[in-house]
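Dear Dr. L.,

I hope this message finds you well. Following up on our conversation about the binding site, I have prepared a predicted three-dimensional model of the protein together with magnesium ion. For your records, I am including the exact sequence and ligand specification that went into the calculation, followed by the structure tokens. Please feel free to forward this to your student if that is useful.
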Amino acid sequence: MLSVRDLRIAFDGVEVVRGLSFDVHAGEVLALVGESGAGKSLTAKALLGMLPPEAVQTGTVRPDLSSARGRRIALVPQDALSALSAVHPVGDQLAAAVRSVARVSRAEARARAVAALDRVGIPDAARRARSYPHEFSGGMRQRAVVAMATINAPDVLIADEPTTALDEERRDQVLRLLTEQREAVGAALVLVTHDLEAVRRHADRALVMYAGRMSELGPVRDVWERPLAPYTAGLLACLPQNARARRLPTLPGTPPTPDALPPGCAFAPRCTRATELCGREEPRPQQVDGRLVACHHGEKA
Ligand SMILES: Nc1ncnc2c1ncn2[C@@H]1O[C@H](COP(=O)(O)OP(=O)(O)O)[C@@H](O)[C@H]1O
Ligand SMILES: [Mg+2]
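The resulting structure of the complex is given below.
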């Protein structure tokens, strides 16, 4: 569906995404995980063709869905309230989104808008389409935003930390809604999150990123059960069910800053398994057991 090859993103000559290659398969949920600063959001923006103008991108993202006339890629905004205009009824906004990509009559656009609201579970959708966002509850607004992102049946949906602002229960509801609706319209979902439990529940594959590179990429089921890259193992050790103590453990140390990367593997200074080789040579992703692992010790893990 999407093929990313040797993606590099730099600011002022400093690379922050450093040669990332991965595919997004049709209909899958691909999670991008990793600590803050890993380059997840910039990668998501590159897929959307929405990098800031000062960013220098090299490598390829194919096909370029963002320039496709049919808007084949859509962003699920983080903030439901600001994503909707306050001055137009919700149904009008959805209908306008339909008419921005398809030459259909007003009545047809209207009908699709109502159908989309109905699909995301808004009761009495025909009447509710005439309401303004402030007349919706928070949950209904969230549903309306998902209806908006999916109304033109994009091939790929991008959601960057879509639930950070919500409490745990709501978070799961929203992710369930998102994954359901993705399935209903047949879109793939690229989900950027630091919520590893949400990944376990909702994602098919995970791309674990560290300091702008891939650490590990594979089916969530396998990776969560037996991480091969020490960085993935360290992240997963921070999951609540893996923690004996009440306080969540975190990985010791902090990620390097992009302009002061250590030589060799960027994770080596924090890695309990690092050897002399790791401090000298940056590992490349290798096929191991149906996944990609960028670690000099990945195979023996
Ligand atoms: N507009 C920008 N100018 C300079 N550096 C940036 C800019 N946007 C992001 N960065 C840097 O790029 C790195 C990756 O950022 P980002 O993709 O937002 O990380 P993540 O989403 O994984 O937390 C960070 O070190 C961040 O400071
Ligand atoms: Mg981010």
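In brief: The pocket of adenosine-5'-diphosphate (ligand 1) is lined by residues 11, 16, 34, 36-42, 52, 54, 258 (CB under 6 Å).

With kind regards,
A. P.
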